[in-house]
User: Which sequence fits this backbone?
């Protein structure tokens, strides 16, 4: 299939590479063209705008930083994806973005005869590289079925959660959990350290039981060994939680950080 | 070995039963004598006070509710465990109690020629029944080695974490994590429900990835199926977190709940 790829950061570069490795033809775009070099070496073609990507592709993937980036890249009247996509073409936005924007893109796509899927991921740079991402999708079943073989090149827990925006809502659930779990890991390990305990022994004592989490058994272990190399940008987590709080507000739901 | 058992609540009754099943002679005490009936049916003897339990035992286990209960049951000059234990006898306090009290009991035991271990557990009523508890111990290595075969009748992740109080400190790390993870589960599932998502599908989408936790994959699944049967008393969690906050305060450590 002819795929388009927009956004080749720490996640996107690996995800696109999996598609090329499975024999798909890729056209790529990045605001920083130099970042595309590793994909061009694999045979991808370089486009000069999101619109040019869309013109050359059946399915266009976007993995950019913020909802504003998604809006610009997709909807810009001169240079956006929707300005170049042929009727029946599909946009898959894998950015962690707002459910509200996903619903808006879904409605706009219906008007123009496109398919759209919101499909944010979980698993970080490690999962992107290994092709083991969890992918949470929102959109029409027919669009999901068209794109599923492509998504399965990048992840192994690929699920359609409901209509447009459902993937983003599910990702919010994921981020609420991930953030809470990390608060627990940090407070627990700080307490252990101050109490004079062997932090690695504490992780072994508590990590396999009812207090265990992926965060403790992976990130906690990194912290304990003083490995502070980042696998995700904290600004992105802050952005994600801001989206979650805004969406919760809109649903009349008061989450902890607001309740205090 | 002649074991003594004080406290036959939702945890203690199962833990003591495992010792009897492995052939140990048990003498038991509860403020509510009727609660001992299932253990007496298994061959345990009933004592009229903690002191009488200690007189009949080489190793006395306590699993009561609060640090004040521990203090009364162990240190009461007329009826306490220490009033009845012979020299060389051992007390194993499996209550989740304060590290400070554990240190105090350790010092008192040295003066009197007893061994003492603080050995709180994780795994809930299910783990107590199945004999799969995690047991976090603080005390002298020789005492730990004496008691280890008994502890291994009740649990499978039994660790000596350091001197007196280290088991309780490790349990605090466990409870800080468990509570944070549960906040994450509740907020995440509330968000999912309000957003109109299928809550069980969300758990499948996020529970196996980087946001996963024992709490989500066990308690979250229970919540999603509307199974609200309790496995632990919320008052006990509140007590545990109060201890954690007091101990953190004493260590000059500001945890989240205090920082707000």
Assistant:
């Amino acid at each position: 299939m002819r795929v388009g790829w927009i956004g080749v950061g720490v996640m996107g570069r690996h995800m696109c590479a999996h598609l090329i490795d499975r024999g798909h033809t890729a056209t790529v775009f990045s605001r920083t063209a130099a970042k595309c070099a590793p994909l061009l070496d694999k045979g991808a073609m370089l486009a000069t705008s999101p619109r040019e990507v869309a013109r050359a592709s059946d399915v266009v993937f976007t993995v950019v930083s913020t909802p504003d980036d998604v809006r610009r890249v997709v909807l810009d009247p001169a240079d956006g994806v929707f300005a170049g996509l042929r009727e029946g073409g599909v946009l898959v936005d894998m950015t962690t973005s707002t459910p509200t924007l996903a619903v808006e893109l879904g409605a706009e796509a219906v008007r123009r005869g496109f398919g759209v899927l919101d499909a944010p991921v979980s698993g970080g740079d490690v999962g992107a590289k290994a092709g083991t991402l969890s992918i949470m999708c929102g959109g029409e079943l027919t669009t999901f079925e068209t794109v599923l073989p492509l998504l399965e090149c990048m992840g192994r827990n690929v699920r359609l959660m409901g209509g447009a925006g459902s993937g983003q809502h599910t990702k919010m659930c994921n981020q609420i959990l991930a953030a809470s779990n990390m608060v627990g890991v940090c407070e627990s390990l700080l307490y252990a350290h101050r109490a004079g305990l062997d932090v690695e022994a504490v992780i072994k004592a508590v990590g396999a039981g009812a207090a265990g989490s992926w965060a403790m058994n992976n990130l906690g272990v990194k912290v304990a060994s003083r490995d502070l190399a980042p696998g995700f940008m904290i600004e992105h987590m802050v952005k994600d939680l801001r989206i979650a709080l805004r969406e919760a507000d809109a649903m009349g739901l008061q989450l902890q950080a607001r309740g205090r």
Notes: The longest strand of chain A covers residues 155-162. Residues 166-194 of chain A form the longest helix (29 residues).
